[in-house]
Amino acid sequence: MRRLYLAAGVLSVTLGAIGAILPIVPTVPFLLLAAFCFARSNEEWERKIIEHPRWGPQIMAWRERRAIARNAKISAIAALAAGVAFTYFTLGLPWVWISIGALVIIGTWIAMRAE
Question: Which of 58, 67, 71, 96 minimizes the number of CB atoms within 10 Å of its CB?
Fold first, then answer.
């Protein structure tokens, strides 16, 4: 089981790194998952994520208070809105309704989290 958690953690860090570069892919949710997996497989790697100067405070805020910083909320909702626009201009109707649904559901959930 430990190896599965380790593999999932490495995959999550990889997806988080991709998310740090691409505007529509999230970063912190993947790093949260990586920290969760590393807590069960490699505590040193978990510590490195938690102590990271940029991502660590966001992960700790989520762990301690289930909180998302305001600027992170704005960025996440803006990325979702960009996804709606991208879907509209590339796929059009009816596919854009899936992106709109994701924006409404996920955006509302994000907006309602503590800061």
Answer: 71
Q: For residues 38 and 46, is the Cβ–Cβ distance under 8 A? A: yes
Long-range contacts of 4-9 (CB under 8 A, 24+ apart): 5/37, 5/38, 5/40, 5/41, 6/37, 6/38, 6/41, 6/42, 8/33, 8/34, 8/37, 9/33, 9/34, 9/35, 9/36, 9/37, 9/38, 9/41, 9/42, 9/45
Let me know the angle formed at the C-alpha of 8 by 5 and 11, rounded to the nearest 5 degrees: 150
pLDDT digits (tens, 9 = 90+) for 47-63: 999 999 988 998 999 99
Domains of the chain: which residue ranges? 2-65, 70-112
pTM of the complete model: 0.75
CA distance 36 to 63: 10
Residue type, 33: L
